[in-house]
Write a structure and sequence with these properties.
The chain contains four helices and five strands, in the order H-E-E-H-H-E-H-E-E. The chain is of the alpha+beta class and about 150 residues long. The relative contact order is 0.14.
Length: about 150
């Protein structure tokens, strides 16, 4: 088990669920205060092997023991974005590549690609990924590939 400071330093003091900064000096009882999410309940046999990640206490509490939803940035122009959590699980398990979004322009697809790689570096640091933008059908496909 890692300490809160170790997990916070590793995760650059950003919440893995909402991707907002976490104040390391905030009270752990505050909604925006730091907490460690182990990804499994402490009574679970998987708890010891679970990846520990930094979260706001409120984000961690809201997630509870259900699969989290990690949203795409509202600043991106993406159509039919793939669920990030499911995509990460599948690429971790099987490898390969997946089309994760469609964009109306190459510039929008490249902007989304940069954001997605940055977001996954904090959300799933154990998964090495590369992106590719492919033209198709009057739009641009954002492809995520496990490397």
């Amino acid at each position: 088990m890692s300490t809160l400071n170790e997990v916070g330093e590793r995760d650059a003091w950003r919440c893995w669920l909402c991707d907002e900064p976490v104040d390391p000096d905030a009270s752990v009882n505050s909604a925006r205060g730091p907490s460690v999410d182990s990804g499994a309940s402490p009574k679970s046999k998987k708890a010891a092997a679970a990846v520990q990640r930094l979260a706001h206490r409120a984000c961690n509490t809201r997630k509870g023991s259900v699969k989290p939803v990690v949203p795409w940035s509202p600043d991106l122009f993406v159509v039919e974005p793939a669920p990030i959590v499911t995509t990460v699980e599948r690429l971790t398990r099987k490898g390969g590549r997946e089309v994760v979004a469609r964009c109306p322009s190459r510039a929008e697809a490249e902007k989304a690609a940069v954001w997605l790689v940055d977001r996954l570096s904090r959300f799933a640091p154990e998964l090495a990924v590369a992106t590719q933008v492919e033209a198709g059908g009057g739009q641009f496909l954002l492809v995520l590939r496990a490397v």
